[in-house]
Amino acid sequence: MDPVSSLVANNKIPVGPWGKSFFDALVGSLGTVLRAISAGLEGVLDWIVDILLWIPPVGLALLIALLAWYLQRSRSLAFWVFVGLLFTINQGMWKQTVATLVLVVAAAALSMTIGLPIGIWVAHKPKAYRIVQPILDFMQTMPTFVYLIPILALFGLGAAPGLIVTVIFVIPTAVRMTHLGMTSIPKSIVEAGEAFGATKRQLLWKVELPAALPTIMSGLTQCIMLSLSMVVVAALIGAGGLGTEIVRALNAGPRGIPLGIEAGLAIVVLAIVLDRMTRIGVGGKK
User: Fold this and answer.
1) Which of 116, 113, 170, 115 minimizes the C-alpha distance to 139?
2) pLDDT single digits (tens) 38-58
3) Which one of 29, 60, 63, 268 is most buried, counting C-beta atoms within 10 A?
4) Cα(280)–Cα(278) distance, rounded to whole angstroms?
5) pLDDT value at position 190?
């Protein structure tokens, strides 16, 4: 190795130890609060899952199929949603599917709740977006498994930490898609609203958001798909659901192939169901 390379390699910047010190300090000062938040979220998630599991599986599958029909006004969609959910029941994956469904819906809803207002704000503040954009780039390029390390240290194991890490992973997409939708609105539409004397609040709610809705709904669909992928990864920190079955299949080696196929197909079914049900504004209600 040449002298310059040796100099660079032998004078390592202690980024890792600095990070550990930061998280140790954070756990030391806020550990009790963070664990209390995690326990509270865990209780809410378990309560929702218990309620859904109290409903007979076929009955809940039928209710979800009816919801699909209500959202999309499509009998064929409702039928295939029902058939897909019956398949997960048949494969013995119903409890895991319900747990994953709750986590995905909660993560997507929280991500949109946080990301939507941020996206609207940065769309109206270009200078703010120039500051936020590198942060979003960093969050989206960070490997998914790296997110698990600090969350595990701060919140421990369980479904709640899985929800938190999924929300953090998905928020950048919600912000970007909202920003894209808001900044893609033709200026003529906004100028027409201003010409009729609309206030900023009226412009936002009656002009900008309706015009940006198709892009925002595309962002919701992406958030759901990303949440589903991250929830599977979050099984490594105890998130449960179908991801746990995938991890079990991996640990079992060749013997886990049947379990992996069953859990994988259940994830595919859930992904297709959620994708088709949330296409409102992109070809939704007729």
Assistant:
1) 170
2) 889 999 999 999 999 999 999
3) 60
4) 5
5) 84
CA distances for 252 relative to 150, 158, 245, 247, 256, angstroms? 28, 22, 10, 9, 5
Tokens of 166: 């999924």
Q: What DSSP letter does each residue of 226-274 carry, written as one string?
A: HHHHHHHHGGGGT--THHHHHHHHHHHGGGGHHHHHHHHHHHHHHHHHH
Say which residue the tokens 């064929």 belong to. Answer: 76
Q: Report long-range pairs for 199-206 (Cβ below 8 Å, ≥24 apart).
A: 204/120
Burial class (CB in 10 A: 0-12, 13-18, 19+), 72: buried
pLDDT 10s digits, 89-142? 999 999 999 999 999 999 999 999 999 999 999 999 999 999 999 999 998 888
274, two tokens: 């959620």
Q: Widest CA span of the chain, in angstroms?
A: 71
How far apart are the C-alpha atoms of 264 and 250, rounded to whole Å? 12
- The number of residues making up the chain comes to 286
Residues 6+ apart with CB under 8 A from 75: 69
The residue type of 100 is T
Lowest mean pLDDT among 27-36, 88-97, 172-181, 210-219: 27-36
DSSP class of residue 176? H
d(CA 69, CA 54): 23
Rounded Cα gap, residues 207 and 123, in angstroms: 14
Residue type at position 7: L
Using a cut of 0.85, tell me whether the model's pTM lies above it.
yes
